[in-house]
Amino acid sequence: MKVSDTDTIVSHHRFDRFAAYHTRYDCDFLRELLRKPDKVMESSPPGQLFKSDSTTTVARVLGDDLDLVIKRYNTRNRWHVFKRALRRTRAMRSWNMAHELLRIGVSTPPPAAVIEERWGPFRKRSYFINEFVPGEPCWSYLKSTPMASESLMTQLTTLFETLSRHRISHGDMKATNILVHEGRLVLVDLDAARRHVFRLTFSRASRRDYRRFLRNWRDNPALSAGFESLLKQDRALRKF
């Protein structure tokens, strides 16, 4: 794979499409993916279609030494298209938030590209493309590797404190969105994540994140108690 010597973000604007990508991923396969994302998704290897429903389609795609995940945000009907036409797309939210998280030291799959189908200023379907990171949901990892619970709880303390310090809420803090890769936590599924200007809105959103996270451990009272203690400590330390 031939990649650029330096990494920059290149964007292309057309009446019917917007696309942006990191030049370190630039190759024939990525260009084909940007031109025809649906076709490339349909040709993904067997078993690599992770999800397909009315809201999203997620697939792993490989080519030219790239190993990527593409998430397409589907439109359900004309009213759904109209309602979201002038709003920032979920793919663009994921693209921006991935860069923000990496900037503040939170691990997330590196973003590769973003695509928006448009009609002038009106947005339709969108696609977010990031590197594939092989990881295991933290709940199953802890079940198979109970000795790692102390290390993961320390990492979770750091994760929640970092998000709190920057007033970032995730929006869907279920265990499947917190992966473990090589012993490190990786946060995924960022389209509902946002950075809050106001302390009140952040406090409400972070409480929802905490409650959603704690529901992951209902069948393990010891872990649940440990995580609840961790999160109470985090709220006490927050300076907002």
Mean pLDDT: 86
Alpha-carbon Rg, integer: 19 Å
Helix content: 25-40%
Q: What is the overall silhouette?
A: globular
Low-confidence stretches: 1-5, 236-240
Order of helices and strands: EEHHEEEHHEEEHHEEEEHH
What is the count of helical runs? 8
Number of strands: 12
* Order of adjacent strands in the largest pleated sheet: 1-2-6-7-5-4-3
Tell me the layout of helices and strands.
Elements lengths: L8 E6 L2 E6 L5 H8 L1 H6 L6 E4 L3 E8 L2 E8 L4 H7 L5 H14 L7 E9 L2 E10 L4 E2 H7 L4 H17 L2 E2 L8 E4 L2 E4 L6 E2 L3 H16 L6 H17 L3
Antiparallel strand pairs: 1-2, 2-6, 3-4, 4-5, 5-7, 6-7, 8-10, 9-12, 10-11
What does this structure look like?
It is a single chain. A hairpin with a 2-residue loop joins strand 10 (178-181) and strand 11. Helix 6 (149-165) packs parallel to helix 8. Mean pLDDT is 86; it is low at 1-5 and 236-240. A seven-stranded antiparallel sheet has the order 1-2-6-7-5-4-3. The chain has a three-stranded antiparallel sheet with strand order 8-10-11. It has 240 residues and is an alpha+beta fold. It folds into two domains: 9-131, Phosphorylase Kinase, domain 1 (2-Layer Sandwich); 136-237, Transferase(Phosphotransferase), domain 1, CATH 1.10.510.10. It is globular, with a radius of gyration of 19 Å. It is built from eight helices and twelve strands. The protein has helices at 28-35, 37-42, 78-84, 90-103, 138-144, 149-165, 199-214, 221-237; strands at 9-14, 17-22, 49-52, 56-63, 66-73, 111-119, 122-131, 136-137, 168-169, 178-181, 184-187, 194-195.
